[in-house]
Amino acid sequence: MTSQRFRIINLAAVKENPWPYRALIFSLIYLAFDCLLPLIRLDPRHLSRPQIAGLVILSTLAFMLLQMAIPRAIVGMRLPVRQSLVGVALSALIWWLCVVVKIPFREMPYALAVGVFLLDKALVGLSLTVALAFLGMMLSVIIREPKLLLPIALVIMAIDVVGVLTNIGFTANTIAQHPEVVHRVSVAMPSVGGLQPQAYVGPGDALFIPFFFGIVERLRLNMRGTFFTMYGLLALAMILAVIGVGNIPALFPMGFAVVLANSKHFKFDRSEVFAMIYVGGLATAAVLGFFLFTHTHLFHAH
Length: 302
Description:
The protein is an all-alpha fold and 302 residues long. It has one domain. It is built from twelve helices and two strands; from the N terminus they run ααααααααββαααα. The protein has a two-stranded antiparallel ribbon. The protein is globular and about 65 Å long.
């Protein structure tokens, strides 16, 4: 009787608020995916180019789906700030233990070391994704009007293009001169079939996915359209990065997806348009000034 009652209560809780359970399930799937994918050993010399391309594309699609499903589930939980801070702190602690403290694999038996090493690498990506998901959700509460999404998305898109694709951009300079820092704070795509894709989701990208999701969820905008449009464009951007096109400013397709999926909510009068242009210009100028300052004082000349 007790067991049956316990089961009914759990099913009722899942039906009432499925997002915590979805977040847990997606996290476990992520760990399994990140641990098991590198164990697949295929000799690229025995595979045709279409087979290699298919393997890389499928694994990239799965990776990006998990990278978006986890923050989507966390945003759906709608936790208060205090609980979100706990989520950030616990996830950041796990990341710190894995990346900074590090686990002494050499002192372990071989079989155990291999298992812990794979789990450790998976936990780095998962803990970073979860920490930034909670943080992005917390930051999203500052946006209280749907129409503010448009100027925010446009400014972020412009800033990321300059930051990634120009020689004064902070991101471009950091990647070129301090790649070890970038890799430490980014979510790397796992290897597949002996191939190690040089692709990763940067911290800014992992932060703005839940930031946009949080706004769309709380203001009851087009979440389904936002999710799938963003997924399609970001997966395409990641595939281009994996095949060697170069660094992709992921906030550009991300912002474009948000604008495209929620365009019907962006209606401005004349004064709002001028205010949006004015504030957007100030924000862009401030960021460009930051880029120029860091390019001159923090990075050495090429």
